[in-house]
Design brief:
The chain has a single domain, classed as Immunoglobulins (Immunoglobulin-like). With 136 residues, it is of the alpha/beta class. The chain contains two helices and eight strands; from the N terminus they run H-E-E-E-E-E-E-E-E-H. The longest helix has 16 residues. 13% of the residues are buried.
Length: 136
């Protein structure tokens, strides 16, 4: 009886030690520099299964993932576009490496200013026009 308990304990321990894991580094596609604090999502059929944030070195780790096909999504931050890697196969044992290269997006927007005179409230239009032109 003791042997059966010991064997079962060893099998359960070995199974938990070989849990699936996804590891990777998020980097800038242009410079190759790592990007810290990027939110990384693990998705299956459009549903988020897990999410983590990269560390100071742009490294992320997702533990205890079931084997199968997933999408890995790096969310936009600090001027980077959303990056999606589809069809990532997570192995039934060991770990899967999925590095992500993010591209920078547009960080500015064009603003159009119209030339409209500013008038004071309660001041007749003629007086306001004189104040703007500088004549007295």
């Amino acid at each position: 009886m003791k042997r059966i308990v010991i064997v079962l304990f060893m099998l359960l321990t070995a199974t938990s030690l070989s849990a699936q894991c996804i590891k990777g580094t998020v980097t800038d596609a242009a410079t190759g520099e790592s990007i810290p604090f990027i939110k990384v999502l693990l998705q299956r059929d459009g549903e988020t299964i897990k999410n983590v944030v990269t560390d100071f070195d742009g490294v992320y780790t997702m533990k205890y993932v079931d084997s199968g096909l997933y999408d890995i999504v790096a969310m936009p931050s600090d001027g980077y576009n959303t990056t999606r890697k589809s069809g990532v196969w997570v192995k039934s044992t060991g770990f899967t490496v999925c590095n992500i290269k993010m591209e920078q997006g547009e960080t500015w927007k064009e603003v159009q200013i119209e030339d409209t005179p500013i008038l004071e409230i309660g001041v007749p239009e003629e007086e306001a026009a004189e104040d703007i032109s500088g004549s007295e």
